[in-house]
């Protein structure tokens, strides 16, 4: 069958995208090719790292040129509640990942959804994931103010082979180590540089357990046990009591008991107070 002009235009855009693989505008060009066929409102390219803040490869600019404060808050800690981040760390896999696939059962009831996701992304999100190793995944996220239709998801799935191929080819041109360790790692092989940056005392963030312990200690509250910290994190992420019980392989009543002890130790009475304590600067300062 003879290709029409739209097919030829698409192949032209893919060719220019391949030419831009080693350039600073690669991510912008990729999103422009995709948005010719599927509407979305924001995008970001990141490296998810287990127990560390994501590394930013590129992000869509704010319409007025200002700094996206919500995204800064995400990088400072709220990424720990992101269902895409959690899924990439727990079950890394390559390809298209949709919000419907990874969102916990109570996701839309969480403070993370109401205060960050709904305000920053608003409607829906998909990601293309390329695992680099057991701890790191290169992703490009496409967020929309509306919910993606079945056609949209089908188009994303159809684009996945060439998007994934380009992600793999882009790797040599991305800084995959934390900025703070860049000078110290200069001249090291990439694998050694990554290990050094993640082990460095000045690494960009700490795992959620250390974060929770530090906040409890600084506010003079009773420290939580490792299991209680896990229950808090999963609860704030949007997993229901029953889902937490299944994930931790404990009983429903045991999870309820953990929650009761957590609230008593921390002196809080709601999920919103828990969220404010661990993920809002004002909540931590006023605690």
TrEMBL record:
<keyword id="KW-0805">Transcription regulation</keyword>
<keyword id="KW-0804">Transcription</keyword>
<keyword id="KW-0238">DNA-binding</keyword>
<dbReference type="InterPro" id="IPR016032">
    <property type="entry name" value="Sig_transdc_resp-reg_C-effctor"/>
</dbReference>
<feature type="domain" description="HTH luxR-type">
    <location>
        <begin position="217"/>
        <end position="282"/>
    </location>
</feature>
<dbReference type="GO" id="GO:0006355">
    <property type="term" value="P:regulation of DNA-templated transcription"/>
</dbReference>
<dbReference type="Pfam" id="PF00196">
    <property type="entry name" value="GerE"/>
</dbReference>
<dbReference type="GO" id="GO:0003677">
    <property type="term" value="F:DNA binding"/>
</dbReference>
<dbReference type="InterPro" id="IPR036388">
    <property type="entry name" value="WH-like_DNA-bd_sf"/>
</dbReference>
<protein>
    <submittedName>
        <fullName>LuxR family transcriptional regulator</fullName>
    </submittedName>
</protein>
<dbReference type="InterPro" id="IPR000792">
    <property type="entry name" value="Tscrpt_reg_LuxR_C"/>
</dbReference>
């Amino acid at each position: 069958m003879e290709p029409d002009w739209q097919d030829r235009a698409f192949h032209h855009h893919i060719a220019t995208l391949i030419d831009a693989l080693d350039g600073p505008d690669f991510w912008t060009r990729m999103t422009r090719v995709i948005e010719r066929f599927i509407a979305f409102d924001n995008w970001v390219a990141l490296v998810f790292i287990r127990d560390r803040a994501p590394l930013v490869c590129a992000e869509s600019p704010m319409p007025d040129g200002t700094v996206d404060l919500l995204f800064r808050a995400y990088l400072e800690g709220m990424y720990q509640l992101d269902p895409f981040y959690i899924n990439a760390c727990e079950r890394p896999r390559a390809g298209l990942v949709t919000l419907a696939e990874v969102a916990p059962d109570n996701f839309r009831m969480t403070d993370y959804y109401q205060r960050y996701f709904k305000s920053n992304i608003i409607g829906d999100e998909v990601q293309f994931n390329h695992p680099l190793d057991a701890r790191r995944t290169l992703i490009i996220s496409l967020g929309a103010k509306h919910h993606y239709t079945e056609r949209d998801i089908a188009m994303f799935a159809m684009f996945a082979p060439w998007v994934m191929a380009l992600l793999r080819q882009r790797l040599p041109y991305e800084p995959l180590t934390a900025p703070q360790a860049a000078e110290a790692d200069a001249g090291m092989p990439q694998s050694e540089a990554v290990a050094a940056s993640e082990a460095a005392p000045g690494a960009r963030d700490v795992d959620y357990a250390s974060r929770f312990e530090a906040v409890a200690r600084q506010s003079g509250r009773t420290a939580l046990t490792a299991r209680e910290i896990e229950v808090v994190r999963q609860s704030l992420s949007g997993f229901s009591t029953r889902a937490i019980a299944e994930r931790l392989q404990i009983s429903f009543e045991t999870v309820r008991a953990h929650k009761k002890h957590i609230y008593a130790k921390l002196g809080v009475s709601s999920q919103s107070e828990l969220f404010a304590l661990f993920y809002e600067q004002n909540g931590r300062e006023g605690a």
